[in-house]
Design brief:
12 helices, alpha/beta, Conserved hypothetical protein from pyrococcus furiosus pfu- 392566-001, ParB domain
């Protein structure tokens, strides 16, 4: 992919447009940043790209921009991103993937989006086309199409190095996004979004049980409660009489065991009682 150039300037806050984002802005986070802006000023610039109408489109720094708006700043320090719209979306994804507080849900969302966008760009360029022909909106929300159930090794290695994780982490995140795709948006604000273990447990349920669990979630249950309830319903019911019968048969088949001798004596005693009654 081609490199891009950067320059930093002060831009009017009201001229920065925030387009579709993969991650929602958290008001509490923006509030904390606004306090920092008042106390120590802006430390990290946002990133924007110039658009034809003369304004700017946000690339990275949605929380910083929202914080500036909260306290009424007229301008904000920004790095001008020199790439096109497709590279800007890729930059947004990578900037978020570097965040330490990224939830397992958001990590899976961004990595799956990165793979689809990365693949579309490379396919366009390898066929002599232009990456600007890639519609990123069509790519970032799709299920990842794996090749023989495996990620492109080049992508996995490149992405793992860029964001500082293992290739296994990259694959696991995309597997979560793919496997839970039918209810992915519904999981955004649940307890599973913050807990990778719960996302993996949902994956293990299978399609039908997953559907049942999500119906419980839509009724107000937590994901953890729903998983437990579904698993309880699927567990075979314990029949005490069958357990006793199985134990009896097992012991009866072993004539040398003490339990066999006890069982044989009990049967003889029962037969004797039946004979006396007749």
């Amino acid at each position: 992919m081609n490199s891009v150039e950067f320059e930093a300037i002060d831009v009017p806050v009201d001229q920065v447009v925030v387009s579709e984002r993969l991650r929602e802005t958290d008001s509490a986070t923006a509030q904390r940043i606004s306090v920092s802006l008042l106390e120590v000023g802006q430390i990290t610039p946002i990133e924007v790209r110039r658009v034809p109408n003369g304004g700017y489109q946000l690339v990275a720094g949605a929380h910083r921009l929202e914080a500036a708006r909260m306290i009424g700043l007229k301008s904000i320090r920004a790095i001008i991103f020199g790439g096109d719209e497709v590279l800007a979306k890729l930059r947004e994804i990578d900037e978020n993937l570097h965040r330490a507080d990224l939830s397992p849900y958001d990590e899976a969302t961004f990595l799956a989006a990165r793979y689809n966008l990365w693949k579309a760009i490379h396919e366009a360029e390898s066929h002599g086309g232009d990456r600007r022909s890639v519609n990123w909106r069509d790519q970032v929300c799709q299920i990842v199409k794996l090749e023989k159930n495996k990620l492109n090794k080049r992508f996995a290695a490149e992405t793992a190095e860029i964001i500082g994780v293992s290739e296994r982490t990259v694959y696991r995140a995309i597997r979560r996004r793919n496997g839970l795709a039918s209810h992915w948006e519904s999981l955004r604000h649940t307890d599973a979004a913050q807990t990778g273990v719960l996302l993996d447990k949902l994956l293990k349920l299978g399609p039908l049980a997953f559907q049942d669990a999500m119906e419980m979630v839509s009724s107000g249950n937590s994901v953890e409660e729903s998983i437990a309830e579904v698993n309880q319903k699927r567990s075979p019911k314990i029949d005490p009489e069958k357990i006793l019968l199985d134990a009896f048969v097992k012991s009866w088949r072993n004539p040398l065991s003490e339990s066999h001798k006890s069982a044989r004596a009990a049967v003889k005693a029962w037969a004797a009682r039946q004979g006396n009654r007749s």
